[in-house]
């Protein structure tokens, strides 16, 4: 039963990840590069602006909205920090996937701006990443699968304990009623 629920959850999350989230861009008329970049992201669908965008997020018509502050592009060129806000439906899985895709675009855009600033000052981009990080598994496949199964066994024990306790509980309630009925009509009782 747990395996079935887990498989169903995995399938549902997979389908939610594959879905292209609809988002809305708020403002940004004076920042055409950022807006054009967002529109080019293939994993996002841009919805036309609407004044009731908060309701649309709550009603799951759109998954998120990104607000580009006034003068954002000019501020970037002048080196002034600005804050881009992302509005979403907390706790709703598809909304969080939309936010993740917006954040990925914005982080890539920010990295590109930093690289351009470094290039303008003749500083190599390697200054930002002085070293790389690489993860590599050294455990044999048997141990990896053993750890996976071992983590699953705990859940199975809990499930089996709960189902195993159900039958004695049923016998206690139903059996007690039956025994009381037999005592009421038993031949030994009628002799008294």
Q: What can you see in these coordinates?
A:
With 192 residues, the chain is α/β, with parallel strands linked by helices. The chain has 7 helices and 4 strands. It has a 4-stranded mixed sheet with strand order 2-1-3-4. It is elongated. The model has no long low-confidence stretch (mean pLDDT 86).
Principal-axes shape call: elongated
Oligomer: single chain
| pLDDT averaged over residues | 86
Largest sheet: 4 strands, mixed
Distance between the termini: 53 Å
Total E-strand runs: 4
Poorly predicted runs: none
- Going across the major beta sheet, what is the strand order? 2-1-3-4
The radius of gyration is 30 Å
What pattern of helices and strands is seen along the backbone? HEHEHEHEHHH
Helix content: 55-70%
Total count of helical runs of at least 4 residues: 7
Overall structural class, as computed from helix and strand content, comes to: alpha/beta
| Percentage of residues in strands | 5-15%
Question: Which characteristics define this entry?
Answer:
alpha/beta, 4 strands, 61% helix, 9% strand, single chain, 192 residues
Q: Could you give a short description of this structure?
A:
By secondary structure, the protein is an alpha/beta fold. The protein has 7 helices and 4 strands; from the N terminus they run αβαβαβαβααα.
SSE inventory with pairings:
Elements (H helix, E strand, L loop, with lengths): L1 H17 L3 E6 L4 H9 L4 E3 L5 H6 L5 E5 L3 H7 L6 E4 L4 H28 L20 H45 L1 H5 L1
Parallel strand pairs: 1-2, 1-3
Antiparallel strand pairs: 3-4
